[in-house]
Amino acid sequence: MDLPHRWGVPAAVPVDLTPLLPQVRDDLSRGLALLNGVRLVLCLGSRAQITLLMGTPARILGATTTAAEGLAQVRRHRPALLLVSDRLEEGCGVDLVVQVKARHPEVRTLLVVSQEHRLARIRQALQAGCDGIVPESRLLHGSGLQALHSVLGGGLYLDRALVGAVLADQEPGGDAAEPLSARERQVLERVVHGLTNHEIARELMVSVDTVKTHVRNVLLKLRVRGRIQAVVIGLQLGLVDWPRPGGTR
Question: Three-class SS of residue 66?
Fold first, then answer.
């Protein structure tokens, strides 16, 4: 289903969003449950979106439409999650993610992109260690809920279309500094699926601390700073496969 211009395609395309209403209602209910009590800073280019999110059960510590004030709010409150859009009234959301991850790497970041063609900017967010990147055009198709679930649970989220575009737009990488062990590949495969550390621990029947150690080793061996970068490099080098739609691990 096509979506109108503000969701990433030409406004002239007629759409009927009615079939999506049951899914949107369900996603909204589950999303509100995920946000319950979460310490959150909003930095979005749309004041209407901020107004809507103000009604969530999250502990919204700050809400702004500019990158400079977004950084100030993060420095002041040290939230659990920064929800930011690439387009802001002043400044750039990607630049904000880069600054936040450099100064406060413990803050989880979820970036909503409306300009999916700006691959260089998306790669900047990846290299900075952004925890989740979701296209605005995919929010009504369940991606928003999946992104929240993964990022809040300590996992990552990167839309399949963005991964494909990033991989297609860059030169093949070199070999990893060190080969991954069989267990490290298993962990990376589950990271690709967006599983959190706790979910990976349950599947592999190991402790969460053990999973964290494996993830840290994967990052070191692939010479990357964040989990999303590890996914991109792992796919690029053929260490893991991208999950098929509707497929199982």
Answer: strand
Q: How does pLDDT run across 118-137, given as a tens digit for each residue? A: 888 888 898 888 999 999 88
Class of domain 182-236: mainly alpha
Backbone angles phi, psi at 85, to 5 degrees: -105, 155
Which CATH number is 5-168 given?
3.40.50.2300
| DSSP secondary structure letter of residue 242 | P
- Asked if 121 and 95 count as a contact pair (C-beta separation under 8 A), the reply is no
Concatenating the DSSP letter of every residue in 96-133 gives HHHHHHHH-TTSEEEEEES-TT-HHHHHHHHHHT-SEE
| DSSP H or E stretch at residue 96 | helix 93-103
In the block, residue with structure tokens 């300590």: 154
Domain boundaries, the chain: 5-168, 182-236
249 has pLDDT over 50: no
**Strands, sheet with 39-43, edge to edge from the N-terminal-most edge strand:** 59-64, 39-43, 81-85, 108-113, 132-135, 157-158
Number of C-beta neighbours around residue 173 at 10 A: 13
